[in-house]
């Protein structure tokens, strides 16, 4: 998987969190991490980043599902849809 | 087949969006928006990080072995995870994993440290030094030790909330066994000079305990550089599970303690009882994340904290409580003169805030911490604590700033005191008549 598609996948998963604060946090961190690692060219380092991102994607997937199972009322800053 | 996927929890505040009418939090303030308040009480507790929950779940589904069962793999697998967690926690404070003793939380750790040292060395050493701004559980433990015949010195703090090193050194006696000074204050966020205090304690061969419930993972602490002998740590202040904590107990030079809990001799005999692998694994993961996210968390929290602080201090007659330099950015305590803190909190149903420690906020007593800083009753009553964390967003901060500004103005407009101040009347010159 290319870096861009992994990044997009992660963002899509983070967006599935029902909890506003968790969703906002993971979206922010994924963006920050992607921006910080964009210039990395070293193969070993890239490999480590990919391994970690894939592990994170699995955790995020599971937890996004749980967040959808146990939902809370929307916050006062959240628009009702 | 997955039979439980759509079951929503029935705890009163956790409901599915469609069935939320029963909740007490449904005072929607704006049309088209939700009604659950913004959470800004991070000193009371923090939300459990989803990554922490992910680490914990396997221990509730399959990994149920007793980590002390040494005869089979069920025990070995949980024991291995407990060891990993212990290493993550030790790493945050540069300690040896063997120096981490698991407890039920920082309150137990504080009890264990104070009572443990006092009881072990109590035959010859009968004096303890602490400060007036400690958490209730340290102060209450010290009171109990006084009832047992120990003498306790409660050091004052200056107007910034800082302990005086000269006064601390002068208070040390021949029979002093322990100095207990908290790292980060839970109400005002002030950071005490741990390294300097540690140096003084080591010089006088007195043990140094610090309550780091609010500090662990949030500020850099090296137990060796700071000569810390005992440290209380809490899991739920770092996005970990509640009911879990630890006490760092130095091995070299060795600190000896009388155990509070006796039994099977777990945790080096200092805290018997079967360990809770789910909570420990969650605590360990939370600690690991504090290290991994240290820089990004701190940058985020500092940015939001600076924004909130400068915006609120623009309101006339507001003051920041505690030192503006030696502080943890995630805790902002501000006094709004001529506004009663509890009224402001009532007017702020859409923001979860506290006027001080959760333990004393039920009593409506003005904060003893603010009193120790020399604030009068009125100002202590008009203070609000804002707790900012990893999961706080910029959008929430903007909402809070706007809401506070509007409602402080609203409450002051109703206040006869504020009217008099605006007319230039010195409130101290008024003789109030009693009825």
From TrEMBL, chain A:
A Pfam family of this chain: Complex1_LYR
Cited PANTHER family: LYR MOTIF-CONTAINING PROTEIN 4, PROTEIN C6ORF149
GO cellular component: L-cysteine desulfurase complex; mitochondrion
Name of protein: Complex 1 LYR protein domain-containing protein
Top-level taxon of origin: Eukaryota
UniProt record similarity statement: Belongs to the complex I LYR family.
Biological process annotations from GO: iron-sulfur cluster assembly
UniProtKB/TrEMBL annotation, chain B:
Family matches, as InterPro entries: Aminotrans_V_dom, Aminotrans_V_PyrdxlP_BS, Cys_deSase_IscS, Cysteine_dSase, PyrdxlP-dep_Trfase, PyrdxlP-dep_Trfase_major, PyrdxlP-dep_Trfase_small
Keywords: Iron, Iron-sulfur, Metal-binding, Pyridoxal phosphate, Transferase, Transit peptide
Keyword set includes DNA damage: no
Biological-process GO terms, alphabetical: [2Fe-2S] cluster assembly; intracellular iron ion homeostasis; mitochondrial tRNA thio-modification; tRNA wobble position uridine thiolation
Gene Ontology MF term list: cysteine desulfurase activity; iron-sulfur cluster binding; metal ion binding; pyridoxal phosphate binding
EC number: 2.8.1.7
Cellular component aspect of the GO annotation: L-cysteine desulfurase complex; mitochondrion; nucleus
Region (Disordered): 1-38
Catalytic activity: (sulfur carrier)-H + L-cysteine = (sulfur carrier)-SH + L-alanine
Biased composition (Low complexity): 7-29
Known cofactor(s): pyridoxal 5'-phosphate
UniProt domain Aminotransferase class V: residue ranges: 38-399
Top-rank taxon: Eukaryota
PROSITE patterns on file: AA_TRANSFER_CLASS_5
Function noted in UniProt: Catalyzes the removal of elemental sulfur from cysteine to produce alanine. It supplies the inorganic sulfur for iron-sulfur (Fe-S) clusters. Plays a role in both tRNA-processing and mitochondrial metabolism. Involved in the 2-thio-modification of both 5-carboxymethylaminomethyl-2-thiouridine in mitochondrial tRNAs and 5-methoxycarbonylmethyl-2-thiouridine (mcm5s2U) in cytoplasmic tRNAs.
Family membership: Belongs to the class-V pyridoxal-phosphate-dependent aminotransferase family. NifS/IscS subfamily.
Protein name listed in UniProt: Cysteine desulfurase, mitochondrial
Organism for this UniProt entry: Babjeviella inositovora NRRL Y-12698
